[in-house]
Design a protein that fits this description.
The chain is α+β, with helices and mostly antiparallel strands. The chain has two domains: 220 residues, Rossmann fold; 75 residues, Beta Barrel (OB fold (Dihydrolipoamide Acetyltransferase, E2P)). It contains eight helices and 18 strands. A six-stranded mixed beta sheet has the order 6-7-8-3-9-10, sandwiched between helices. Strands 13-17-14-15-16 form a five-stranded antiparallel beta sheet, with no helix packed on it. A hairpin with a 4-residue loop joins strand 11 and strand 12. Helix 2 crosses helix 3. The chain is globular.
Length: 319
């Protein structure tokens, strides 16, 4: 199936800084692609290039098979939802959602129908007469989302969409966006530095560093089969030995019976259903995630223990 959006060999430089370095990727129909990486890795610049707010120095941007590389934002069949939401404070919720449709010259009756449909999709119909200052952060986000989907874009570009929300609301909104995307059939490209958010929302994740793509794959493949130490460190907790051996904390078993790698419990972090043990070995401090299931043994600070893991849990990774 042909991609909805693709970038081909895109590069962008700001002065001496190469923000995006020869990046190629594609987004399929009704797919959510997450751009994941630390601050300054180029993910937001890449999103702005897709939206048309920046012009690439090299490469091409294709949307639904049409070259959009030099097209302005308003001529592209995509919408971008900004981290600040960028709502007009003097306008009502209804007028904010209708603004882009009015700029496009959509007749009033069609415009009203689209606005009602978009507000219903995000469960904000009752708030149509309110101004942005009368809404919570989560409600303002919903209005910004409604404004985007009212224009029925081919793809929706979201820049850190949950950054301003508290943990509980962020987790709930992630799931709501997941359901909404599938119902509307719109492709999403989401910029985030939160690995949990990327894993919750995305069909595929692109891990970026220094303007380059380190690895692009499904959440499961990235977690279980990282291609490098850099990806493994960024994508979930990982124990990395000096030799390059990598083992996830939940794949390691602790025992008092001799066998495997010897160590001493130096600390523990209790989280209700799990405990993370910090175990000092000869080479490094190893993190071990232990679930509280049945009669699973509990270990104490200062206790000597032995670590082991199945063969398929360990991978040797390059830097």
């Amino acid at each position: 199936m042909a991609p909805i959006l693709s970038v081909e060999g895109i590069s962008k430089r700001f002065g001496v800084t190469l923000a995006v370095d020869n990046v190629s990727l594609s987004v399929g129909p009704n797919e959510c692609l997450a751009l994941l990486g630390p601050s300054g890795c180029g993910k937001t610049t890449l999103l702005r290039l897709m939206a048309g707010f920046e012009t690439p120095d090299a490469g091409a941007i294709m949307i639904d098979g049409v070259d959009m590389t030099r097209k302005p934002p308003y001529a592209r069949p995509v919408n971008m939802m900004f981290q600040s939401y960028a709502l007009f404070p003097h306008m009502t919720v209804e007028d904010n959602v209708a603004f882009g449709l009015k700029q496009d010259g959509l007749p009033a009756a069609d415009r009203l129908a689209r606005v009602k449909e978009a507000l219903a999709a995000v469960e904000m119909e009752a708030f149509a007469p309110r101004k942005p200052h009368q809404l919570s952060g989560g409600q303002r986000q919903r209005v910004a989302l409604a404004r985007c989907i009212a224009k029925r874009p081919k793809a929706l570009l979201l820049d850190e969409p949950m950054a301003a929300l508290d943990k509980h609301l962020r987790e709930r909104t992630q799931l709501e966006l997941l359901v909404l995307r599938r119902r509307l059939g719109i492709s999403f490209v989401v910029v985030t530095h939160d690995q949990d958010e990327a894993m919750t929302m995305a069909d595929r994740i692109v891990v970026m560093e220094s303007g380059k793509i380190l690895q692009a794959d499904t959440p499961r493949a990235l977690y279980e089969r990282p291609g490098s130490q850099a990806v493994a460190r960024f994508f979930g907790d990982i124990n990395l030995w000096p030799s390059g051996l990598a083992v996830r904390p939940e794949r390691i078993a602790l025992s008092r019976a001799p066998g495997g790698v010897e160590g001493t419990v130096t600390d523990m972090i209790y989280r209700g259903t799990t405990t993370t043990y910090l175990v000092q070995t000869h080479d490094l401090v190893v993190r071990v995630l232990s679930a509280h299931a049945g009669d699973a043994p509990q270990f104490q600070k200062g206790e000597k223990v032995f670590l082991s893991w199945p063969d398929d849990a360990a991978r040797t990774l390059c830097p």
